[in-house]
């Protein structure tokens, strides 16, 4: 996937979402946004050509806000990107480890480096986000305060990497979706992914029957998430990822069978699988 223009993401420059943009689409100019809603609106309004949104993390599960925002966003998925969450201790240049007494980062990231913080007796400071913490550390210029963030954040804010890849879980990975105003069903790759949302009809065993077509047609479903719609317990919506393209005969049959047991079915995107998917599978 080769694109030019701007790509929107939530967070400061140097955030892990920015890392995803940098790794997957380095030729695009990053556009930091305050919230997920702002990033979506940037794409929808044309201020950005694409958006990079996190949907799930191997340690902490799904990003709930995104699953609620995607159906009403009006945007389509045209790609995916997996980013290994490498956490680094960033300090003002020339700082020695024994000078550092505290570390600042997002509360989730602080929980992922407990072993390192305990070993070095570092006080935890909760910051608004990872890259924002790096920015604050750079502005303060205090060698006793370090940031926990990406190496990219260190490069952007002029900080040294005092300790590299200090996360407790060596396989911590976040999956991102590349969003666009228009779908792209024309691309073909050895392995394609299709993402969609659906709502089952209010009949006995509706979900069981709806999913049966994927099993009988040999379609691999890699993700199935449920969430309530507008706070109603009786209106459960599902988000699903499957391997294949809607024009593949077996996928086409499975989606047709699904439609018999749903009162809403919407394809959110068709896109090539990130090669990293195989490595982390």
UniProtKB/TrEMBL annotation:
An example of a GO molecular function for this protein is:
prephenate dehydratase activity
User: Top EC class per UniProt?
Assistant: lyase
Start and end of every ACT domain? 195-272
Q: Recite the UniProt keywords alphabetically.
A: Amino-acid biosynthesis, Aromatic amino acid biosynthesis, Lyase, Phenylalanine biosynthesis
So, what pathway does this thing act in? Amino-acid biosynthesis; L-phenylalanine biosynthesis; phenylpyruvate from prephenate: step 1/1
* Origin: domain of life: Bacteria
Pfam families tied to this protein: PDT
Q: Which residues does the UniProt record annotate as the domain Prephenate dehydratase?
A: 6-181
The UniProt record lists the EC number as 4.2.1.51
Please write the reaction equations for the catalytic activity of this protein: prephenate + H(+) = 3-phenylpyruvate + CO2 + H2O
Name of the featured protein: prephenate dehydratase
**Protein source organism:** Thioclava litoralis
């Amino acid at each position: 996937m080769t694109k030019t223009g701007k790509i929107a993401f939530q967070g400061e420059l140097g955030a892990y979402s920015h890392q995803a943009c940098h790794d997957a689409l380095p030729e695009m100019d990053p556009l930091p946004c305050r919230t997920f809603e702002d990033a979506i609106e940037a794409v929808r309004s044309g201020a950005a050509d694409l958006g990079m949104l996190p949907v799930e993390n191997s340690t902490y599960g799904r990003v709930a806000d995104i699953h609620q925002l995607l159906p009403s966003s009006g945007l389509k998925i045209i790609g995916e990107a997996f980013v290994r969450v490498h956490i680094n201790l960033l300090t003002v240049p020339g700082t020695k480890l024994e000078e550092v007494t505290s570390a600042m980062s997002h509360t989730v990231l602080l929980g992922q480096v407990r072993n390192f913080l305990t070993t070095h007796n570092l006080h935890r400071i909760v910051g608004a986000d990872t890259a924002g913490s790096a920015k604050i550390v750079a502005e303060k210029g205090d060698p006793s305060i370090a940031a926990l963030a990406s190496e990219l954040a260190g490069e952007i804010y002029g900080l040294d990497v005092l300790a590299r890849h200090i996360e407790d879980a060596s396989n911590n990975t976040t999956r991102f979706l590349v969003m666009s105003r228009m779908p792209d069903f024309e691309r073909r790759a050895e392995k394609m992914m299709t993402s969609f949302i659906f709502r089952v009809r209010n009949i006995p065993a509706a979900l069981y029957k709806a999913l049966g077509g994927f099993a009988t047609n040999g379609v691999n479903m890699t993700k199935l998430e449920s969430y309530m719609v507008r706070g109603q317990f009786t209106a459960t919506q599902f988000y699903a990822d499957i391997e294949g393209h809607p024009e593949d005969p077996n996928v086409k049959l499975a989606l047709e069978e699904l439609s018999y047991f749903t009162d809403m079915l919407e394809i959110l995107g068709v896109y090539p699988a990130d090669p990293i998917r195989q490595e982390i599978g």
